[in-house]
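Morning!

This is the sequence you dropped in the shared folder:
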Amino acid sequence: MVKRKKKKSHNKGKYFTLFTLILFIGSALGFALFSKPADSTNTHERIFLTQNIFDTPISQEIQRDVLLIEKPNTHPKIPVERQIGGIWIEYNCSDCIPLISNLSQIANTYYPRVYISPDETNPSRITIMSWAKTEQLNEVNSTFIEDFICQNLIYPPDICALRSL
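The structure's back. Tokens below.
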């Protein structure tokens, strides 16, 4: 009986080369697609505010950041995940010390989630803004403002639950 020699198959080497080539091309494409430089047109950096009551107007861009982003933990008793979103109150009254005092008291009650600032371009005396809703008032209505705060914060503070008791 004559033994025949089996011919060596070169298919293994072809498959390995093909696999290596596909892996290399896929990696190069992935790198090219997903390692784009950051958008240089958006030069705005997020600003984290260290106070919540302002006596000068604050830009709409900064207000939008406060209403929409997660802020670092600025209050030791409030965990970070409960500081998402915020409320911004604008007032249009330069000589109204009682109005500013009342709004400041409300803002301090809900610190660090509620901010106030003047805005002379407002058509009403008070504008309350959240991430999803805006209300305008002509006088301070503490109950309405606090209800707005509790209903429109993404994660309302515990004081909101205590108000409903």
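Headline: Strands lie at 87-91, 114-118, 126-129, 134-137.

More detail when I'm at my desk.
O.
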